[in-house]
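Case study 2.
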Amino acid sequence: MLQDKAKKVYKAKILKGDEVIVIAGKSKGQTGRVSAVFPRDQRVLIDGVNLVTKAVRPNPQSNTQGGLEKREAPLHISNVAILNPKSQKADRVGYSVAKDGAKVRVFKSSGDVIPTAAKDTE
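Prediction:
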C-alpha cells in the first residue's frame, strides 16, 4: 500500500528579519534581510537577492499590465548563513540558555547573542 509521506518540518535557525549572506549559488556573496521563511520547504526569501524574470500575463480586471518583471525567488536554507555584524562574515547559529531562563540564539564563533528582529503584529 502506497501512502504519501508528509514532509518532515525542520526548525529553521534563520528567522524572518535576520541579516544573511548567500554562501552558494549564482547570488553568492550578496547580503540581504530575510523577508519570509518556509520551514516545510526549507527555503528562505531574501530581499533583493536571487532575482528571477517572470513573464506576467495582462489582466484587465485587476488593471495589471503584462510583460516581464523581476521578483525574488526562494533560496534553500543551506545556501545562506547568518551575517555576524561585528566581523561582517558568515557565522553559524547555536542555542544557549540566558540567565533569565530563556532560550536564545548565539553566534557560534563568538558566543554573542543574536539580536531578534521586532515581531510583526499581523
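The beta strands are 19-22, 31-38, 43-46, 51-56, 67-72, 75-76, 80-84, 89-91, 93-97, 103-107.
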